[in-house]
Specification:
This protein is of the alpha/beta class. The protein is built from 13 helices and 13 strands. The strands form four sheets. Strands 4-3-2-10-11-13 form a six-stranded parallel beta sheet, sandwiched between helices. Strand 7 and strand 8 form a beta hairpin.
Length: 334
Amino acid sequence: MSGFFNEMPDGYRETIQKGRSWLRATRSAFVYGCGNRKENIARLEKELCTADAIVIGAGAGLSASAGLTYSGERFERYFFDFMEKFGIRDMYAGGFYPFPDEETLWAWWARHIYYNRYVRPPKPVYVDMLSLVRGKDYFVITTNVDHQFQRAGFDKRRLFYTQGDYGLFQSVGPYLRKTYDNEGWVMQAMAAQGFVRDGAGVFRVPEDRAIAMRIPSGMIPRCPDDGGRVTMNLRADEGFVEDDGWRAASAAYAVFLKKNEGRHVLFWEMGVGGNTPMIIKYPFWAMTAENPGAVYACLNLHEAACPALIEDRSICIDGDMGSVLAELATRLIR
């Protein structure tokens, strides 16, 4: 099987290299686009209706717009005990905290996974987006690991989660390059901490707030193949497991891009910040620049910009993604 995948295209690395090469060869100032918000939303609406293909690139800002925030009231509601005992202030920081034992570590991760992977977001951002591309030739590449595209109903054959999936574990050992579904374990670990299901089947903090910060030792997750330790399937270092599903999605991304070379393609970037611009932002700029028929759109809060070189084929909208998507959905459905 490994030989088969070695022969497949790798859209992840191919496009990253394309973006890097383009940046090295290009000297272009960065601008905030032209036109006002109303004009740019109208332009984006037109592109959504007329493009031959749509490539969606999504970052963490999209899930934040959907209400899957890592700090503030949402964090305090579900992690108040970790905040009080360890001084942790947000979910991101908690993922790196040196907890005193595995029982506490995995109690944390059960909550972290559940409230970002196995619940629907508070706002219909992903559902609105699906309404804009349903029936069109689209593909999604995302650095998000919360699986919300698929939960909203996007075709899983058109999705590429480059940085992993909260719903998967991987073995710590270097030889088992496999991932393992964790949904069953997560549900058991949430119940073991004292969370209770509401009428919709969603785990909530009980009224007396009596929840445990540790899971039983026998519930610590283990690799089903060798009984060894597991970790999250999240890209943090060279130990990240790119399993068969990941490689198939990377190949599908490459095939989609190849099929649409030279066509009227909308490269639509949303919520991509400065942490991983080489995965989506830079390749989108490069592929727009090399294809005269392509259009680049950037929807982001305070970070909507483009190279001056492609300004005439760029749409930059600075604002809350949820509000813009809802407006577009209303305009296109009417």
